Amino acid sequence: MKLLRLKLENFRQHGSSTVEFRGGMTAIVGPNGSGKTTILEAITFALYGEKRGDKNTIRFYWAPPRKPFRVELSFEFDGRQFVVERGETEAALKHIDGLKEHVLAQGLKSVTGACERLTALSYEQFTNSFCAEQKGLAFLDFKSAGARQDEIARMLGYDRLKLAAGIGKDRVRDLRNRINGLRENLGNETELKAQIATATASLKSAAEAVKSAETRLASLDKELPTAQKARETAERFLELTQKAQAIAATAEGLKTTAKVTEEALESARLDAKALSRLRPIEKEFQETEALAKTFETQREVHLAREAKFKRLEEVKLEQKAAAGRVKALGSGVCSDLEGKLVSANAALGASQKTLTTATESWREDQANAKAELARVEERLKEAEAQVKRAEDLIARGICPECGQSTQQSGAEALASRRSELEARGIDHGKLGTKLQLAATKPKAVVDAEAAVTEHQASVDSARRLLTEGQALAAKIAAETETIKRLEYSSAILEKEIAATVSTYDVRAHQAAKAKCEALKSEHAAYLRVEQADVRVEQCLKKHEASRTELETAKATYRKLDEERKRLGLPDAEAARKAVQAHSDLASERRVVEKELTNAVERQQDFTTRLTDADLRLAELRKREEAIRTAGDELALVDFTAKELLNLRERLNETIRPDIEARASDNLALLTHDRYSVLKLDEDFQATLVEDDIEKPVISGGEEDVVALALRLALSELIQERQGRPMSLLILDEVFGSLDSVRRQSVLDRLASIKGRFAQILVISHIEEINQVADQCLYVSRDSDSRSARVTDAPPEFELMAV
């Protein structure tokens, strides 16, 4: 892995920082609390999401409100370029291919898993091999000692052997399941051969039955044509007999019909004679009835004219009464009342506008006071929270400014926050008093309300008077309109009466009605025989048609009888026997045909059974061969899986000796040969050997030197054994408890291993690191923005020695 670029936004002490990484050894220096270690923490946070503390402590203290923290890391791995971005709630891993971006994972957990698969290292493995965080130099600092052996084996790639052995075991299980499946329902060869013999004998018997049925079926097929011809003749005889019987029945019916039509014809002729007598009488009845209808129309006109005379008298009386009511009401004038109402409304509108303006100004003052008080309360709560957070951090030994160990700056920061809290409390009290004064209704609003009340009373009085005047005017207008309407109606009635003349003769009307009544019976008789001439013609046609149909039926019967005699059958019984004889032969043929079908089906069934038995015998022999082949593969795979596990155990046994030898070489260089031998027990706990005497690691300086020697040994071993492209080494404050002599030894050792790692990051506040580094990055704190800044030029400060 090679780091390219790191961007931090609102992360710990960094408000906005960009770090450009190069190859070789890079020293990252700066005073304590400036934000050096934050760079390493940002790298592990981007890859694995690990961080110290909660989201409130990781976010830059002086960041704008609700501004999130974010880290972006660009790096190369195995010849490809990647970018991982991570914030509080989201993350993404991308592959950069030229100008194209390919998103590999999104989401906090998904990105962490993708980075673990890409580097083949978990967070614990990464920080125990290629990366040592501040105060985390201890070798193999896993959650349990028992996990150290397995973790080292995984980092060296030996877990691949275990994975391969597991695949082999799965294959062994699959092969055993396959063998068991092949053996299931395998069958018995002796039983299958017996089934073949039985099927062969049954097949022979079925073939004989088929042959017998085919012989009988051929004999019946020879007899059936003669019987079929006799049946057709008999069926024709029976058909002709049935038709002749039907014709005879029809002829009897036609005889009855002819008699009925003859009687109907006679009745129609009598009605025709009566119709000739009644025609003159009907004409006289029609003329008298028309005259009576004319008199009825004249009577209706006469009655309507009389009704109009009566209505005209009523209208004149109503007109006189309406004129009297108008005289009694007098006159109604509303123009003066309307002017007074307009003036009152104008005065009311002006006073309401004044009240609205005064009220809005008062409410605006109240709203401004409340908003200002809310802002001060929010700042006051924020200041209280900052003081409480600073007190908690100082109580835990953490500076609220830089996140490092508590120094003098921590007390100053707390005092500054308390001072700010006190000032905001004073502002809050002043604004509370101001808000109480703003709650009192001002004089301008009180005066405007009184004016509105007075003008509203004036408007109500003017509106009441106007309403009464309008009601009186409406009554006068309504009565005047009534008079006009009655005058118009009276004129219309007089015009209609003048245009109407009465010619109605009561006595002539009554004489016409009496004559119509006397002729009613003759009129009814005429209606009964009105269609007599038509009926005579229709009955004559029906009678002639029935006679013709009767003669036709007799001729048809004679023809059918002659054809029936030519068929040569004595009677219908003989014909039915011929039909039955053919049916019996056909039934027997169907029975024989069914027997043949059953015999053929049995023959096919036994053929299928024989074929199935042959196939099962072949399948049995094929499965026996497959069982032998799977058994041979099972033995080979089982042996291979066991040998892979044995190989992994043998390789695990070499881990400790290899690490001991490499760490001893590193320890000798770091201690100028004072300690040249280092031993590890089963839990990888280190023991020093001085003058052939084993001694435990006691002092802090010895502990850090031993841990550094072991960590360098493990990093080299991982790269050699696995070929992993993790050409990165990060060391954070590895000089913490070393004296000047051992510090120089560490510097010399770092200089000697630069060629083994393509990229080494050393984070320290010790200025001697510049002697061996290829380049140096300086981290300092900007007093104006209170944020850390990273540059490649030395700032104006002196590095603080431990």
Give the secondary structure arrangement, pairings included.
Layout: E1 2-11, E2 14-20, E3 24-29, H1 36-48, H2 55-58, E4 70-77, E5 80-87, E6 91-97, E7 100-106, H3 108-119, H4 123-127, E8 131-132, H5 147-155, H6 159-183, H7 189-329, H8 335-395, H9 408-438, H10 443-498, H11 506-518, H12 520-528, H13 532-566, H14 572-653, H15 655-670, E9 677-680, E10 686-690, E11 693-696, H16 700-722, E12 728-732, H17 740-752, E13 759-764, E14 775-781, E15 788-791
Parallel strand pairs: 3-13, 3-14, 8-12, 12-13
Antiparallel strand pairs: 1-2, 1-4, 4-5, 5-6, 6-7, 9-10, 10-11, 14-15
Summarize the structure.
This protein is α/β, with parallel strands linked by helices and 802 residues long.
What does this structure look like?
The protein is about 70% helix and about 10% strand. By secondary structure, it is α/β, with parallel strands linked by helices. A six-stranded antiparallel beta sheet has the order 2-1-4-5-6-7. The protein is flat, with a radius of gyration of 63 Å. The chain starts with a strand and ends in an 11-residue tail after the last strand.
Kindly state the mean pLDDT as a whole number? Answer: 81
| Total strands | 15
The low-confidence parts are 797-802
Contiguous helical run count: 17
Largest sheet descriptor: 6 strands, antiparallel
Keywords summarizing the entry:
alpha/beta, 15 strands, disordered C terminus, 802 residues, 11% strand, 68% helix, 6-stranded mixed beta sheet
